[in-house]
């Protein structure tokens, strides 16, 4: 509760302190710390992949080192063309993260704005948005992505839109309910009486108080987006070659995994670790932003 | 009287939702830039007879204003006409009729297994909070949630076929009624793969709900009254956690429908998911459009049953709606 009231008076200096303690609280929660560490490693590895800083060129074929097992020079072994699986996985992770972040950006911005507007503005706007949300909910997210991919195509941006749009209704629902409560809270009423403009109320008073909810949702959405992207490219509906994402690698491994398990396990592990990391981070953020749901 | 109005209202709201779904699908597949039905028809027109092309033009209202196109589709849908697949030159209703039972069977088995895993381990965890039973439950939950179904499916297929030379899915799929035992072998493995993710989510919900309920006053009262342990666990704890479990199961169903798409592909099951992916790869718009609608309709109808289940489970919601 004190958190909500402090928002009205928080000056710039207090802001800094609050942010630091917020991170500290996240670090102190077990889930949060695990999440931060895994996500940091994942992001770093993904950035290496995007920047092209990999032990070998991901597409460099080496006939002399075909289907080699795990060793110090090939951390995840090599595939049937002698390509280094670890280098490929780094690059694939980069592609997956690019699409995941872009899609969550799309979903987060549209969905949060939709949720805040639906919660704060009048009956009519709210009814229209919520009806639309219900209808989008009727289409399972993966199917939504498949339909959009059919129409748009298989590029990085196309995949991001496909994955992101399906997550919009989830943001709308999650953000709307706290906004409904905040709208009737004393400090927002006080703001209204003081003659604050709608924009100011939304931007300075409502948004900071739903930031926690949005942060939790964003972390979970990222985990889901990584999975969804891997699924799409596994089905051959992701970005076309030469862009190789993690899903492609898992799919390609079907022909080699029987003799070289590392071709399947390597990229799979990277997906799993990334997903676990964002899930832990989401749980940690939830612990911090809402003490009531703190995991036992 | 009230029950009738409630049911009528629910059916109306479902119809409105489905109408909206059809608009959304139409907008995605027809109005987004990049492709158009007419363009994709141009490519495969050689395969079709003049009469078929004319029928498709009529069905999709090609060349007419957008609104008219939509209403022509809607009109046909309401008459039970799902259109004609461009790539397979068969009616979509025929293809869906062939493939829907496979997906339904897969979804059914996965859901049942998922609920068994979820409720079983969830109760076990919740009744021993902080003990080793709880830890096992937590491990199952983390593993189930973290390992994507397609990774698990892919691994299972590779492992079974190379180590045991056992891959029932390599045989042509048979229906349950023509060869139940082979059908069971073909369905059970993909079901297990799909059920783990569902089970993990239901496990977490069950555990949380049961723990919450067991802290409430009435639970302590019941224990104090000397209710037998079995009755306490199932009548007092489980029944009162059931709404949460049912809600989570309903949510998981959406993921399940998405999951079947990928799993059917891996296990070569000729279900709706495989139909849809093949259609997407062939740019077969009519088939994608109608198949997605069938998926969504199924999802909406099941959600209606989930809603109805609430009033059966929880008398409080019954009073409120009456």
Quick rundown:
The complex is a heterodimer of chains A (296) and B (322). Chain A has 296 residues and is mainly α. Helix content of chain A is 74%, strand content 0%.
Observed structural traits:
heterodimer, A: 296 residues, mainly alpha, elongated, B: 322 residues
Protein described:
The complex is a heterodimer of chains A (296) and B (322). With 296 residues, chain A is mostly helical. Helices cover 74% and strands 0% of the residues of chain A. Chain A is elongated. The two termini of chain A are 22 Å apart. By secondary structure, chain B is mostly helical. Chain B contains 13 helices and no strands. In chain B, helix 5 packs across helix 8. Chain B is globular.
The main pleated sheet of chain B reads as:
none
Report the end-to-end length of chain A measured between terminal Cα atoms: 22 Å
- Biggest sheet overview of chain A: none
- The Cα radius of gyration of chain B reads 24 Å
Beta strand % of chain B: under 5%
Number of E-state strands of chain A: 0
Oligomer: heterodimer
* Shape annotation of chain B: globular
Strand content of chain A: under 5%
């Amino acid at each position: 509760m004190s958190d909500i009231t402090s928002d009205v008076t928080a000056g710039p200096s207090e802001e800094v302190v609050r942010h630091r303690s917020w991170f500290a609280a996240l670090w102190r929660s077990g889930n949060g710390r695990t999440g931060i560490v895994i996500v940091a490693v994942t992001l770093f590895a993904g950035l290496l992949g995007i920047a092209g800083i990999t032990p070998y060129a991901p597409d460099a074929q080496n006939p002399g080192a075909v289907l080699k097992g795990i060793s110090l020079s090939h951390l995840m072994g090599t595939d049937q063309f002698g390509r280094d699986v670890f280098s490929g996985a780094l690059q694939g992770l980069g592609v997956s993260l690019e699409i995941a972040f872009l899609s969550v950006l799309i979903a987060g911005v549209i969905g949060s704005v939709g949720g805040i507007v639906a919660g704060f503005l009048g009956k009519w706007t709210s009814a229209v948005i919520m009806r639309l949300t219900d209808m989008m909910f009727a289409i399972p997210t993966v199917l939504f992505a498949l339909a959009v991919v059919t129409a748009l195509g298989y590029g990085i941006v196309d995949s991001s839109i496909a994955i992101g749009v399906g997550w919009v209704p989830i943001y709308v629902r999650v953000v709307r309910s706290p906004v409904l409560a905040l709208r009737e809270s004393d400090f927002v009423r006080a703001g209204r009486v003081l003659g604050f403009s709608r924009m100011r109320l939304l931007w300075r008073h409502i948004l900071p108080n739903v930031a926690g909810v949005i942060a939790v949702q964003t972390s979970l959405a990222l985990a889901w987006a990584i999975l969804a992207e891997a699924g799409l490219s596994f089905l051959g509906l992701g970005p076309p070659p030469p862009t190789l994402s993690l899903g492609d690698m898992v799919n390609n491994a079907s022909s080699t995994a029987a003799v070289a398990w590392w071709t399947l396990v390597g990229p799979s592990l990277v997906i799993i670790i990334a997903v676990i990391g964002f899930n832990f981070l989401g749980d940690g953020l939830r612990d911090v932003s809402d003490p009531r749901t703190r995991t036992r | 009287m009230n029950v009738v109005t409630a049911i009528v209202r629910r059916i109306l709201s479902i119809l409105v939702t489905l109408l909206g779904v059809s608009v959304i699908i139409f907008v995605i597949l027809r109005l987004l830039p990049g492709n158009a039905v007419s363009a994709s028809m141009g490519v495969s027109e050689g395969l079709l007879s003049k009469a078929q092309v004319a029928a498709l033009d009529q069905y999709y209202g090609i060349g007419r204003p957008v609104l008219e196109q939509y209403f022509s589709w809607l009109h046909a849908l309401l008459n039970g006409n799902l259109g004609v697949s461009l790539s397979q030159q068969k009616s979509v209703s025929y293809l869906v009729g062939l493939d829907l039972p496979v997906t339904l069977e897969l979804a059914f088995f996965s859901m049942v297994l998922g609920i068994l895993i979820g409720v079983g381990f969830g109760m076990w965890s919740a009744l021993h909070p902080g003990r080793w039973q709880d830890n096992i439950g937590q491990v199952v939950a983390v593993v189930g949630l973290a390992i994507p179904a397609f990774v698990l499916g892919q691994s299972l297929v590779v492992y079974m076929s190379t180590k045991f030379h056992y891959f029932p899915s390599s045989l042509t799929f048979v229906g349950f009624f023509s060869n139940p035992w082979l059908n069971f072998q073909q369905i059970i493995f993909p079901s297990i793969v799909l059920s783990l993710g569902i089970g993990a989510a239901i496990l977490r919900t069950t555990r949380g709900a049961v723990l919450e309920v067991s802290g409430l006053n009435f639970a302590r009262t019941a224990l104090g009254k000397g209710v037998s342990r079995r009755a306490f666990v199932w009548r007092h704890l489980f029944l009162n956690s059931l709404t949460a479990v049912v809600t989570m199961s309903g949510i998981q169903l959406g993921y399940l429908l998405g999951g079947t798409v990928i799993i059917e592909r891996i296990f070569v099951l000729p279900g709706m998911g495989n139909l849809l992916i093949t259609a997407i790869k062939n740019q077969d718009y009519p088939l994608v459009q109608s198949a997605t609608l069938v998926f969504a309709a199924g999802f909406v109808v099941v959600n209606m049953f989930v809603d109805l289940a609430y009033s059966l489970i929880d008398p409080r919601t019954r009073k409120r709606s009456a």
